[in-house]
Amino acid sequence: MFHKEHSTQFINLISEKEFYKNLKPFLNCIDHTVSKESYEVMINEDYDMLVTSPVPNNLEKYYVSEDYISHTDSKTSLFDKTYQFVKNYTLKKKLKLINSFNTEDKLILDVGAGTGDFLKVCQNGGWKITGVEPSEKARVFAKNKNIHLLEDLSKIENKQFDVITLWHVLEHIPNLTEYIKQLKLLLKPNGILIIAVPNYQSFDAKHYKEFWAAYDVPRHLWHFSKTSISKIFSLVGMEVKKTLPMKFDSFYVSLLSEKYKTKKSRPFQAFLTGLKSNVKASRSGEYSSLIYIIKNV
Q1: pLDDT by residue (tens digit) across 168-195?
Q2: Element (H, E) at 248
Q3: Which of 60, 61, 213, 241 is such that its CA lies 20 to 30 A from the CA of 136?
């Protein structure tokens, strides 16, 4: 059954009747990382959007795992080392992206800042930084890099930003409607919102189905497509101007997905699947993860 308390947070933007009209089961996924519990993923065909059901009351406990490395700087295993190498490369690409926008004050807000690596790169690049990160452990890591992060958006007072970034964050937000409204208020007129999220319409998602690691239930509450992102943000007067690929994600996600599906590490097979996903996406635009450049119009 769809978790109504969860859904109404988003329904405020459209209407409960409209959202539920075509809501139906899509697939069942297991939480491979922490609990091994099963969750239903539901689809709204009008918005081409998936939602996870039910939503646990205590989401925080589902982030406690040595396998969940987005909030750590671990470099112990080969997998961690590869992850960190790719992360450092993509940090440079992200800085190049935000530098491509003509901004007067170079004020940037990073939501879900993790251990502060992206903001550190931005700071070194001349940006005036603000970051939000709910994880106390991650904030401690960031503080050790002299990056002081706020706990949530409510801590930001009387300030608007030229650029706001959410790198693989939006899919984790329970109160989606409220968050989108807050982001719009924090963004200057004609400011740029950059959002990166997994794309459930990608080849690797369709190939691995319920074993696709980027479903990551129940941590990922929402599962987006290009259609759903465009529709959601148009409802609050924001426009998707461009989409960009995150080509490394297909390999990373395929590596995890192979492990979930076969109970074995199959790096070569994962590499082939990731490569095939990117080749197909070069024609369709449906990469494993997409970056959306959204303007506050």
Answers
A1: 999 999 888 889 999 999 999 999 999 9
A2: helix 248-262
A3: 213
Using a CB cutoff of 8 Å and minimum separation of 24, what contacts does 84-92 make?
A: 86/248, 86/252, 87/117, 89/248, 90/246, 90/248, 91/117, 91/118, 91/121, 92/121
CA dihedral over 9, 176, 197, 116, signed as positive or negative: negative
Q: What percent of the chain has a predicted confidence (pLDDT) above 90? A: 77
Tens of pLDDT, residue by residue over 65-99, are: 765 555 556 666 776 777 778 888 999 999 999 99
Q: Enumerate residues 6+ apart whose C-beta is below 8 A from 262.
A: none
d(CA 39, CA 30): 6
Its pTM stands at: 0.91
User: Which residue has 């993509």 as its token pair?
Assistant: 90
Compute the distance between CA of residue 215 and CA of residue 209 in angstroms, rounded to an integer.
9
* Residues present in the chain in total: 297
> What type of residue sits at position 171?
E
Task: Report the b/e string of 75-89 with b at 16+ CB within 10 A.
Answer: eeeebeebbbeebee
Start-to-end Cα distance in the chain: 37
- 156 phi, psi to nearest 5 deg: -90, 125
Q: In this structure, are residues 274 and 250 in contact, taking their beta carbons and an 8 Å threshold?
A: yes
Residue with tokens 């959002």: 195
Determine the Cα–Cα distance for residues 61 and 76; give it in Å rounded to an integer. Answer: 23
